[in-house]
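lol ok so funny story. i was supposed to be doing the assay writeup but got distracted and ended up predicting the structure for this chain instead. priorities right. anyway since i did it might as well share w the group, maybe its usefull for someone
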Amino acid sequence: MAKSSADDEELRRACEAAMEGTKQSIVMSIRVAKSRGVWGKSGKLGRQMAKPRVLALSVKSKGQRKKAFLRVMKYSSGGVLEPAKMYKLKHLSKVEVITNDPSGCTFTLVRSLDGINEVINTSQSVAPPQWTMRNTDDRNRILVCILNICKDVLGKLPKVVGIDIVEMALWAKDNTPVVTTQRSTEDGESVAEAVTESELKVTVEKELVSQAEEEDMEALLGTYVMGIGEAEAFSERLKRELQALEAANVHAILESEPLVDEVLNGLEAATNIVDDMDEWLGIFNVKLRHMREDIESIETRNNKLEMQSVNNKALIEELDKVIERLRVPSEYSASLTGGSFDEADMLQNIEACEWLAKALKGLEVPNLDPIYANMRSVKEKRAELKILKATFVTRASEFLRNYFASLVDFMVSDKSYFSQRGQLKRPDHADLRYKCRTYARLLQHLKSLDKNCLGPLRKAYCSSLNLLLRREAREFANELRASTKVSRNPTVWLEGSTGSSQNANTDTSAVSDAYAKMLTIFIPLLVDESSFFAHFMCFEVPALAPPGGAGSDKRPNNDDGNDDDDLGIMDIDESDKKTGKTSPDLTALNESLQDLLDGIQEDFYAVVDWAYKIDPLRCISMHGITERYLSGQKADAAGFVRLLLGDLEARVSMQFSRFVDEACHQIERNERNVRQMGVLPYIPRFAALATRMEQYIQGQSRDLVDQAYTKFVSIILYDLANVVPTLAKFYHQASEAYEQACTRHISLIIYYQFERLFQFAKKIEDLMYTISPEEIPFQLGLSKMELRKMLKSSLSGVDKSIAQMYKKLQKNLASEELLPSLWDKCKKEFLDKYESFVQLVAKVYPSENVPGVTEMRGLLASM
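and the output, tada:
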């Protein structure tokens, strides 16, 4: 037999080095090849690439107890053995030799953990590892060693599959090499000693027969006076005796023929009895079949009755639910048909409304089974609920109309709510809104029950509150004018009266302060009323801006700290909210606000006209104040307030234009005067007028003053040119020089920002006089590549270049009034030059893409 790796001492020492520190001693170490097989086809074993491994059997002693282990070792990258895995042999449940391997050198080891078999070193999703030995001797050596250790150390043997255990025992008998085992001395130390494998072999023949069978075999051998070594003679003697017994049996059968005939007769009689029994069984079977059919029929009827009983029970429960749904509680019916709308009873009314809305929705098809929708009782109950709804909506609408009118009448009849002589009274609607909020929830339920009922209610509320607001505005405006102390002598600016200079020094700031106070008090009030009305009357509009607008910083805080726009309620159906400015209620809201605030503008107009009569120049301050408030109104609910401010701004502008026209008329009238004094006296007066106007400028009123300057200067210069013909020539020369200077300055700024662009265009224009356009792209510095580079450097940040152009123009101007007109000229000049450039490029470089003139015009317009 070839030398096995189990006898390799160097391998044993390498394994001991790898197991150093574990206090385990090696019984056997042997080289194997690890692979994973595919068992799909019988008689054929497919393997993955085999990996070299070393299996080492070790024993660890702990007092009188011993533990056996199976270690799997692998070679590291440096060729040194290192532990890979370790298994306890007490978990080994089966040793299986792979029958598909013709060599018989491949086996697997299966362990059992808590009753669950698991292949060593595998998982459920991976094929089990197979250990392949070099030859069958190595296979038998490792398996015999495993079995011996299991029997001696553990006291049990694993199941062996795929190999004849007798054959393995015979092999162990013939191959008994010396094996090193461990023996414990008296002092507890383990000492290795050499024994033969025959001493460790498994007595498999004792495992194949029982103890009683073994004793019977020994007694039989003793009967024949034969030893265990005379097996062939014993076998031959047994054969001869068996032949004698068979011959005796045949002779006995021949002698028993009468007995056989008797048995046959008995069998025939039994057959007849069996046939009779079969006939009777057939009869009984027919009767039983009829009985089964009767039983099935009875069971069918019982099942139908039981099903009918279940259906009747379910039907009764469903009908009870429908009846409960159709029942109208007496307390709700009383509240809906004749209950009081006092504040103490509103909670009960709200509960009745909620129940009514829920009941009506419950009788609709989406919430009600369609099979019930056409039932007469459901139709009648639906009609009854609609009558209840109509009755309640009518009663509630009538009550609210009367309630709104009574609230306003009470406030109008009490003079303490309004401004009086010597006392300006700020309108206070906190108590009014508090009382209205009591019925805000009722209005929401009325909207959910019948949207059409809100129209008359909104008109009634607007009509009543409009009387109150107009009365408050009228009383406040009258007392404001009466309490403002200013000079009543009108100031005449451009007439030659001797007192004009004295009137010009009169302080009329109280006039504009009174106008600002009027706006400060009433504009936030009107915005608040608009916002409260939109919420209170359940308009589905976008969220409103905080009330107050531009003048809200002048409003004193409410003492109670409550926000009047907060109704203190929640929406009935949050899903009904609509956002966006396309809400269908927005138009209706604006119409209602027109009714709510209509007529109040007359009192504002009266204040504007009063201020104009005292000092027309105060129109400038009032225009700025109005513009500031107008820019602060952004909420949709304040739409009418914006219209009111716009009308006031137009009224102020109209009055100021009236003053300017009258002043111009004075100049023209003085020109045609018999005394022929000319326009020269108006120049110093105009300077004083302009000085005073500049003092009154606020916010956007600069445009209003500039327009007045334009009218004054144009009429004075025009008349001056007509009076002094010699000056007309210089006037026109100065105008032409101004236009030329503007053109040169604009061109300089354009060329400074877009120098490369227009220099490139000038080169093309110069060459077009000498060569054809098709030849220009082939000239030095004018190729298509040069064109693309120039466009990238000049137009990649064209918006920034245009902004720099605007800043440069603004920096070089001493007067801001000239900037808009010069910037318009600059944009027009740039577009003309750029359009010429685009036409040149289209003619010379037809395949190149250049930003169009329309795109450039849009860019300039957006800046």
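The two ends are 103 Å apart (CA to CA). The chain has a mean pLDDT of 76.
back to the writeup now i swear
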